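Example for tutorial group B:
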C-alpha cells in the first residue's frame, strides 16, 4: 500500500478506506501477496473497468468544457500552477 500512497499522494488511512470502499463495491479485488504477507495485490475488476470506461469520457468532456472558458494565456497560467503544485507535492515529505 505504501507504493499506492506515494502514487496517489494520499495518506495510508485514506488509501485503506478507498480500497475498502472499492472492494465492497466489487470495483477492485485484493489478495495478500504470495511474496510478502504484509503486501496486498490489487486488481481492477470487470465492474471497475466498466465504471472507468463510462466515467472517463464524461470527466474528460467536463474538463474540456472548463478549459474552453479560459483563453490561451489563462490555460498556460493554470498549467504552470498545476505543474508547480505537482512538483511541490512530489517533493513534500510526509511525517
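The residue assignment follows.
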Amino acid at each position: 500500500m505504501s507504493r499506492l500512497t506515494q502514487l496517489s499522494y494520499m495518506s495510508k488511512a485514506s488509501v485503506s478506506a478507498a480500497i475498502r470502499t472499492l472492494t465492497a463495491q466489487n470495483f477492485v479485488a485484493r489478495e495478500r501477496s504470495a511474496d510478502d504477507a504484509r503486501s496486498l495485490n490489487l486488481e481492477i475488476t470487470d465492474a471497475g473497468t466498466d465504471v472507468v470506461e463510462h466515467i472517463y469520457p464524461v470527466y474528460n468532456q467536463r474538463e474540456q468544457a472548463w478549459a474552453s472558458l479560459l483563453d490561451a494565456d489563462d490555460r498556460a497560467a493554470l498549467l504552470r500552477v498545476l505543474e508547480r503544485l505537482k512538483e511541490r507535492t512530489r517533493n513534500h515529505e510526509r511525517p
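The two ends are 16 Å apart (CA to CA). Compare this with the pattern of hydrophobic and polar residues in the output above.
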